[in-house]
Amino acid sequence: MRETTEAIVGAVTGPVASPRGLLLGRYDDRQRLQYTGRSTTLARAAGSTIAGHLTPAGSEHPWTGWSFSAFPVELACWS
């Protein structure tokens, strides 16, 4: 059996213009965006395609100031 769910792209590894990975989140019961997981490394073509749907996040992003790993992370919003 397979289950699927929706998630929000909350951040990327690498630059928003050419992401190498996606950090995903879901809203909890109190409407706070919680980190839920990450994608595998994206092929360059996939990163370029996804980049067209992303925008850099503003200072109001709920993950501003968070640290996820040793990888460079940019906060993003799905547009």
What average pLDDT do the residues reach?
85
Q: Estimate the strand proportion.
A: 35-45%
Count of DSSP-assigned helices = 1
The total of beta strands comes to 5
Computed Rg: 12 Å
Biggest sheet layout:
5 strands, antiparallel
Query: Strand pairing plus helix content: what structural class?
Result: mainly beta
Instruction: Write down the secondary-structure element order.
Output: EEEHEE
Strand line-up across the major sheet: 3-2-1-5-4
Provide the helix percentage. Answer: 10-25%
**What distance separates the N and C termini?**
32 Å
Detail the poorly predicted runs.
none
Shape: globular
What is this structure, in a nutshell?
This protein has 79 residues and is mainly beta.
What this model shows, in words?
The chain has one helix at residues 44-51, and strands spanning 8-13, 21-27, 33-38, 54-56, 73-78. By secondary structure, the chain is mostly beta strands. The protein has a 5-stranded antiparallel β-sheet with strand order 3-2-1-5-4, covered by helices on one side. Strand 1 and strand 2 form a beta hairpin.
